[in-house]
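Hi,

I'm pasting everything inline rather than attaching a file, because the server keeps stripping attachments. The sequence lines come first, and each chain or strand is labelled.
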Amino acid sequence: MADSDTITRSAPDTVKILIAGGFGVGKTTMVGSVSEIAPLRTEERLTSAGLGVDDLEGIEEKKATTVALDFGRITIGEDLVLYLFGTPGQQRFWFMWNDLALGALGAVVLIDVRRPETSFAAIDFFERRDIPFVVAVNGFYGEHPYPPEEIRDALALPEHVQVLLCDARERGSCRDVLIALLDQLIASAVQSDGGGRLTPGGP
Amino acid sequence: MGGGDTAGRLVRPFALTGGRTRPSRADFTLITTVTAVDPPPTWATRPQPEHQRILRRCAEPIAVAELAALLDLPVSVVVIMLCDLLEAGRITLRPPHPVSRNQDMNLLQKVRDGLGRL
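And the predicted assembly:
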């Protein structure tokens, strides 16, 4: 068998979506709900090399630290795999998100209505970098005390960013959030295409 | 000689990489897929045990993040060893789908359809 045959052997194309939000908002739960594998945890070792001094604020006594990333996988087809990465919840690891965000299709920002401020940093991060995102309000115990529009106003989100109510424990609910993100991406791709030779499947 | 100060300690992750902390190639992202070259090139030398562990795990294509999680090693350590294996011609890699501002409509539609089937 020629080398070229072995090289092209069935490695799938890969894409990723980030699941972001404050600490304890349900990111890993969401990843686990839609992933075909139990969420995996990998560690990225960060050292002081390459980081500004300010970046190490709060972890001064350590020269190196380890940030855990939880992720899952959805096989879209034989030749395409989608990975979902939960961003590190602690805000002081925001610099990790830069690497993670590179090459992502988009993001889901999870919000806990009881303490929405913990997800402000994530919204800010994606807005500043022009990374498309949807906001998913995780109703703890399945409860949703506020309608989406009220949450949109409270977060001062632009019109094109969708706000969805979800239950991170429910597979169907998490799937719908991801589909909403894809619909948003498709809609903006059609727009930038100048009205589109291709149109999205939806109405 | 040298290395005497580490006697009695558990092997630390970067001992596996000969003390190197930076990969020689920047093209291993978390979702870059790696696959062992089978059969190995005729000029291949016998790999180190840790490299061998990686080769076994990537007999089938696997993403870097998954490989690190399964080996229970930090991503940065795995990437350094993957660089060695790439240089030795023992693995091939497939970079992730490029994402640009003008996103690929066919790709988006494919992902959306796939999610719809969940």
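Helices of chain B lie at 49-57, 64-71, 75-87, 105-116.

If the labels don't parse on your end, tell me and I'll reformat.
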